[in-house]
Amino acid sequence: MKHVPEELAAFGAAPAFSTPRSVGRPNIGDRAALFARLNAALDRGWLSNGGPLAEEFEQRVAAIAGTRFCVATCNATAGLQLALRASGVTGEVIVPSLTFAATAHAVAWLGLTPVFCDVDPVTGALDPEHARSLIGPRTGAILAVHVWGRPAPVRELEELAAEHGLRLFFDAAHAFACTSGGRPVGGGGDGEVFSFHSTKFVNSFEGGALVTDDPELAERARRMRNFGIAEAERVELVGLNAKLNEAAAAMGLTSLDSMDRFIAHNRENYHAYRAGLAGLPGITLLEFDERERNNYQYMIVAVDERRAGFDRDTLLAILAAENVLGRAYFSPGCHQMLPYADGTRLPHTERLASQVLALPTGIAVSAADAATIAGIIRVAARQATTPAHAA
Ligand code: T4K
């Protein structure tokens, strides 16, 4: 544990870690169970196109999400596209800008227009009142995001969508196995989409899933996922190839077997960060509401430069010198990315996007590592706010 500025690698000392502690390092479950599933798939000679492992994965995901249907996909981006296309959305789709580019891309790739909405200044969740002000004659849907696994205001958005006859979807890439108001994330709006990318706390190498209670939407998405083919090789819809293959499903099932352990581990890390960062001026760890079930996957810290004495990018550099590889998730907001920048200003999004970073967690990071990382931030903060430094 480092205690004084001279011990920081940024000042020439040895780094705190000899190997990197990175955001996004995969959680890997029981390898023997994974290899057994892979061997079974090879023995069966059935590797994709709705195999038994993909079907089992769908059933288990639907059970956790509390939904009637689950359509597993090759990734969440394709899942979002299927959700929008299968439900016949046209025109404009209101999306938050403070998200990974995939949310906006899924909309734009379908020829729909993303309309960027501002967010709550603390939680980063889509602001229903700003969304309301963006609704116009061309609005077809709202696509909210449970950013960093903190649920968007599901009920308010459901009311808003119902009031205006809009489709409502949730990009739940970060929020698998979480609850919102005690209700599992998954049953909100017309449907929700999870990501099981390698960087997610439950991963299938690459993968995603659309969950919904709407039988028609599920059936259309299921067909569109497989080239629009209905029974007997009859093509009925324009389709994608967005299927989850059996190797991915084997990994997904093996990850699910260890899900509770991953959550417990992430939660310990969260508490180590929380204790280590408590009371630091200008450094705010985004809290989880512990009345809910959380996956504790994204450890998000906001750096207020005026109070901390340094900015987010300086902190990322100080940490990188210690072999701690944080990420500026999500910066800039999508509305300021090249394909979308049109001069729109979103003050809360822009401030958060300049202040937030994700800290490493997951099973490759121990609670002792998290305490060490928090200690580095504490030393850096002390250095930055001492009068000598300020002069
Ligand atoms: N909606 C939201 C809100 C999302 O955050 C995402 C994806 C999506 C939709 C779309 O979901 P998918 O279509 O991907 O299912 C990564 C992931 O690729 C992306 O899935 C994720 N969000 C996003 C937040 O993070 P990058 O470009 O930051 O990835 P990259 O390659 O820089 O890796 C991130 C970190 O993870 C690095 O520190 C390295 C580490 N890593 C990564 C991989 C792949 C590993 O240690 N091992 C690995 O195998 O996007």
UniProtKB/TrEMBL annotation:
SUPFAM superfamilies xrefs: PLP-dependent transferases (SSF53383)
Pfam families (UniProt xref): DegT_DnrJ_EryC1
One Gene Ontology term of the molecular function aspect: transaminase activity
Signal peptide residue numbers: none
Keywords: Aminotransferase, Pyridoxal phosphate, Transferase
Domain of life, source organism: Bacteria
InterPro entries in the record: DegT/StrS_aminotransferase, PyrdxlP-dep_Trfase, PyrdxlP-dep_Trfase_major, PyrdxlP-dep_Trfase_small
This protein's record includes keyword Cytoplasm: no
Family: Belongs to the DegT/DnrJ/EryC1 family.
Protein name in UniProt: dTDP-4-dehydro-6-deoxyglucose aminotransferase
Organism: Winogradskya humida
